[in-house]
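Ticket #4471: structure export looks truncated?
Reporter: QA, pipeline team
Priority: medium

Steps to reproduce: submit the single chain below to the structure queue and open the exported record.
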Amino acid sequence: MTTTISAAQVRDLRNMSGAPMMDCKKALTECGGDIDKAVEWLRKKGIAKAAKKADREASEGLVSSYIHHNGKVGVLLEVNCETDFVAATDDFKSFCKEVSLHIASMKPICVRREEVPAQLVEKEREILAAQIDTSKPAEIQEKMLDGRMNKFYAEQCLLEQPYVKDDKKTVEQFRAETVGKLGENIQIHRFARFEIGA
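Actual output as written to the record:
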């Protein structure tokens, strides 16, 4: 039997943990609506910690590189953390390497949706709006358009993409888990992807 999770429960858990809404909903679903167990679930995943550390300054870090074995695809990636101590750990280096590999494979165009060029967003909205059935009420059309735009962002923005090695979580969730593991604010700052002939 599936437990029904209310919006109020999700909001309460978000306020307690600082974790993103979707993670709060998942935690409550996994824990049968028990808020204390859900907090514990989020903490085990490192998600609750990640949200609380997000305001701390991340001015250290690494520039990581990845060159595909055929020499035709390469990535340069800057990931920031709070201390040079964490930047030197194997876990941090491994995280940078995994994200570089993901970028090489999944071809995101930017880190987060705010960075998608306005012109591209406008053009995509126009194309998607033209595909929507205009016989439906305006608010339904708007919801459908928003849903399709979210799908577009999930395909183009690194943090929203399903993580290449585990598509049950996004790159953002992978980042949050790493924050929980390493105990510092970790931010994916920028990247450049190179591909022969692209």
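Status: closed, not a bug. The export was complete when the record was re-opened. Leaving a note from the reviewer for reference: Residues 138-156 form the longest helix (19 residues).
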